[in-house]
Write a structure and sequence with these properties.
There is one protein chain. Mean pLDDT is 87; it is low at 273-297. Strand 11 (288-289) and strand 12 (295-296) form a beta hairpin. This protein has 21 helices and 12 strands. It has helices at residues 3-20, 29-39, 45-54, 60-69, 80-90, 112-124, 141-149, 162-168, 180-183, 220-233, 276-282, 310-319, 323-332, 339-351, 355-367, 372-385, 389-402, 407-419, 423-436, 442-448, 454-470; strands at residues 101-106, 132-138, 151-152, 169-172, 175-178, 186-190, 206-211, 234-242, 255-260, 263-268, 288-289, 295-296. The strands form 3 sheets. The protein has a 7-stranded mixed β-sheet with strand order 6-2-1-7-8-10-9. Helices cover 51% and strands 12% of the residues. The protein is α/β, with parallel strands linked by helices. It has 3 domains: 3-57; 80-296, Rossmann fold; 310-470, Alpha Horseshoe (Serine Threonine Protein Phosphatase 5, Tetratricopeptide repeat). It is globular, with a radius of gyration of 23 Å. The protein binds S-adenosylmethionine. S-adenosylmethionine binds at residues 20-21, 70-74, 78, 107-109, 113, 138-140, 143, 192-194, 212-214, 243. Residues 1-271 form the CheR-type methyltransferase domain.
Amino acid sequence: MAESSRSALARFVALVEQRLGLFYDKAQWGELEPLLAERAAGTGVERYLEQLASASSQQEEWKALAERLTVGETYFLRHPTQLETLVDQVLPTFLRQAPNIRVLCAGCSSGEEPYSVALLARERGRVDSSRLRILGIDVNPRAISHARRACYSPWSLRAVPLAMREQWFQRTPEGFSLRPQVRDQVIFEERNLMEEAPAFWAPGSFHAILCRNVMLYFPPEAMRRIIARMAQALVPGGYLFLGPSETLRGISDDFELLRGGDAFYYRLRQPAQPTSSALAMAQPVALQRTQSQVTLPVVTPPAPAPAPDGVDGVLHLLSAERYTEAWTLLESLPQSSQPKALLLRAVLHLHAGRLGQAEQLGRQLAAASGTEAPAHYLLGLCLEQFGDEVGARSRYVASVRADPTFALGQLRAGTLARRAGDVVEARVSLRMALSLLPQEKPLYLSLFGGGFGRHGLMQVVLQELQACTEVP
Ligand SMILES: C[S@@+](CC[C@H](N)C(=O)[O-])C[C@H]1O[C@@H](n2cnc3c(N)ncnc32)[C@H](O)[C@@H]1O
């Protein structure tokens, strides 16, 4: 690359980091090159960069870049233990202090996360929904209009139990529409976390903030500024939930780390409170009684396990739902035609919504020997995304024909059979799934488990079997 082009690219990368918070290391700069060429085609690169630097972040060009550069992967009931902790333990503690409880989902993408809070709060009944105010913000305008439409694909609902789906969603030709009473409980706003906006982050604005899987790619300095704003905007003792791969270590001392089940989250320290390490030393295993009467253990963060390399590293990142990193790692490896690498590539295409590419690889793998079962399964997932449940069901049936011990294929075939009213067929497949799940291959659980472990999937099968008995 010519020196002048390299310097233009460096300025573009720096502007993107400064305005959107998105960090690209040198090895990734090449990803931005075609985008810069495309956006600057009308004006020339120099003029384009000048205009970009002087444009406010609310101007159209920055919105267009946000749409192209952000990663919006999300789904309903993602990291469920955190959400359960929020609605069962955290929010009820504020009921006596405030008429309304305010929750912010920062980086809410297409709305699945704030709607999950609303849905779960209704299901659990610990907080009166009329007192719950939920606000979702995101820098991507397309994600925000999707959130306002509140209509979702089956893939977005993959972790929603059947009974919940039937109660709160309506099947429409476009997908699953959230019922208006839940939809209207959440409001959305286009907003960039990198902007200061003191009025928005005014003290005491929120009781809890969820900012999960958003700052993974932010440089530490940007994260520090955003977390400081969030600390200021929380009520005293307010709560912050980050994604499982994100941490405040080295970023902020304003919070203490807590644990509920296997979920980690943070609480704003009270000025007079001892530090978490002092508490942990005084009573390492005892439960701490907080100002708001809820008992929550104060813990030290677990040391992250070293990630494996190569294709196994990709699988590890995929299981942790770190799809963008998984994709970057996969791209950095020598192109491999090994079935496991191809399967991973196809699943990552699917997660990124590149259904055409996922389907193409799926067909290739379905024709090869040894990968027919997962390939048919993947093709079934693609067809479900296209809304073709009949086609998807025949793919799942093909997957178990190719490998009769494939529990996930049996589960999905059974689920779609039940939905089609074919209860006898559904029961057979679901019972097979139940008996096969304890031995399901770890690779398949990582690729297709939808965030559920073996036990969680067995619960899903039991719910499906229960639903079969309810079919008239
Ligand atoms: C991976 S999604 C996470 C969605 C949801 N929180 C979850 O965990 O399922 C990350 C979201 O953060 C948003 N985001 C990235 N940078 C942002 C910024 N500077 N301001 C606001 N939102 C941002 C992206 O547009 C994207 O929708």
